[in-house]
Amino acid sequence: MCEDLAMREPLFELEGLGHAYGSVVALHDVDLVVPRGRIGLVGANGAGKTTLIRILLGNLRPTRGRVRVLGFDVGTEALEVRARVGYMPEGDALPPDLTAADFLVYAARLGGLPARAARRRASDVLTLVGLDEERFRPMGGFSTGMKQRAKLAQAIVHDPDFVLLDEPTAGLDPTGRDELLDLIGRLQGFGIDVLVSSHVLGDIERTCDWVVVLEGGRVLRSGPIAGLVDAEVVVVEPLADHDRLVEALAGAGATATREGPLVVVEADDDPFDLVRDVLADTGIGIRSLGPRRTRLEDVFLAGGDR
């Protein structure tokens, strides 16, 4: 994440945040500061994602704790938050009889734009999301991909500072998913910070630079996705002679194991230096060499141990 983003007001801050639906606790005294940027929110069903989104939007008053979004207290400055935030819901909430153009103009007017500016902004945003040729069609006849684009368009038509996207690729085929993810990746270039809530971990790894992992209403992990790297473990893909490489690495004092076409190397000292020296001594060629990257899936499998 670039330095100027890190120096700005946090995207949102949670202090002792808790919420319960009767006897069911959805969030347990969460303390969290999330920087500006592209944020992934992941967790299994029941982890607390939907509850957190509703609280950030100001649609749900938490049982306890304090929430600030873009520097504003959601409890006392909800109007200021809503004026600066957009939301793309998971469900199909589009009015089927309205055209995309009419709906976007209406959404822009709700966001505070005057009539002429709303029409111009609606036209620009429909072009951005690839619905310019469908703008005068009733949305009830839209495909799933077109509906997702229309929902994204209404979330950004009033030019928010921050947009929350709830399962934005749900129901899309691979091509539609790729196209929508590309759109999401471009939003920060327009000055819009993004929170993507998704159970599709690959989507988060592709579009986000920070991830918040919820489990059972608690934060399992929060940090940059680039930090999901274990620099003390090296993965080597040799062209051949896998077993000979494992034996040579073991002889040099490393712990080396074969995992299919790869050799995973751990060492007390710098494993890169050790692998380099062994490769030079043995003359074994390689296809790739790099640190082992921890996937989000690995974080879930590790659970509370991380």
Can you give keywords for this protein?
Alpha-Beta Plaits, 11 helices, 306 residues, Rossmann fold, six-stranded mixed beta sheet, 2 domains
Describe this structure in words.
The chain has helices at residues 3-7, 49-57, 78-84, 100-110, 115-128, 144-156, 174-186, 201-207, 242-251, 271-282, 296-302; strands at residues 12-21, 24-34, 38-42, 64-69, 72-73, 85-88, 162-166, 193-197, 210-215, 218-224, 229-238, 255-259, 262-266, 286-293. It is an alpha/beta fold and 306 residues long. The chain has 2 domains: 3-225, Rossmann fold (3-Layer(aba) Sandwich); 228-305, Alpha-Beta Plaits (2-Layer Sandwich), CATH 3.30.70.100. A 6-stranded mixed beta sheet has the order 6-7-8-3-9-10, sandwiched between helices. Strands 2-1-4-5 form a 4-stranded antiparallel beta sheet, with helices on one face. The longest helix has 14 residues, at 115-128. Residues 1-6 have low confidence and may be disordered.
